[in-house]
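Quick one, T. Sequence first:
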Amino acid sequence: MREYRHNLRTPSRELRGAMTDAEQLLWSRLRRKQLHGVQFYRQKPIGPYIVDFFAPGAGLVIELDGGQHLKPEHSEKDRQRDQCLADMDLLVLRFNNREALLETDVVVERIAEEVQRRKSPPAPLS
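Structure tokens:
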């Protein structure tokens, strides 16, 4: 079971109410098990972090990054965060807000491919 921090409940609720345009657009394509029947959650606390989108059935985290993530200090924090989540057997896919807004279909297709790959059992050895 993934660690849930109760002290992140209120901030995650607040973030759900203040989603960016890119997050709202992507959420409209992820919600209600639209991708291969996998449930996604938004602004979900996992360990010490609140991730943008989480699909526990696929062990997948989706992060949408604004321009601040291009700064070196932010890139290092993102790397550490991704490694912490990877240590929990989660894969992090990162997209920038511009991609999510202007290339939504491409972003959703990339997510769908990964969901399918991660939720499918491995092929039997012959």
